[in-house]
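Minutes, project check-in
Item: structure for the 271-residue chain
Input as provided by the requester:
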Amino acid sequence: MSRVHKMLLIVIAILILSASQLFAFENFHGHKGRPHPKLDSLFEAAVSLDKSTEGMALVDACIEKYGGLEKLKTVKSIRQSWRMEIAGTRDTVDIVKTWAPNKRLLIKTYYDGNMERKILRGDSAWFESHDTVSFVEGNRYKGFLFSYLTLGMPVSIKTETFAEMKYGVREGDSLGYIYMLKTDSLMIVIGIDPADNLIKSSEGVIFQGKQKSIYQNIFDGHKLVNGYWTPNYQQDISLWMTMGRSKMVNCEYNKEVADNFFTVESDKLSY
């Protein structure tokens, strides 16, 4: 087993061992190291998006910043390549994310000559590792769906169906937050900076009764790629633990992707 793989397994083991305590907290990891505001009070204080002039204006400004709704709706694929440095080590992994509309997502992770895949296709998802394919459901599926919706932002705000949408701000935080309840057990929260109307954070909240697991992406260093604003850096936080920081290596928009690319047989195709 490679050193990088061992480090990944150690981090996962720590998360699993800590899960029972971490689930007891009812808060988000604050933006860029700020204190953890409580989720329940934040959501309760937020107002319905369609009743908030400030919230609707921020969403409209964000969508316009990214190119406008009609342009964003025509995006047929996004392919991002990242180099991630694992927290606490100098080890790196390469991650390639391929997104397409209609719940299609493939995430490949490369380390020491090995590759793992996360595949989302509609209401089904799989995880492939070392020639083993596992069907993904429940909370793991929701984690895949969170990644898909995040990559599709901000147009997902307008094109996806959400049970409830709210707008709110947080004390000591300059961002405006859009809370999107996808199902009764999955919420996506994006933080938009009103100074430049760019998305600076995305939080995925998976509910298990009164318990919650929270995943956060923090974005910075945005730049224009083929006319689309794209983050150059991403910090991944899982259950309040920083997993690593990634730098964008390459990004492509609107490249042709075969529909059966998003299947467990995708290793037979090239992209």
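Outcome recorded: The mean pLDDT is 85.
No further action items on this chain.
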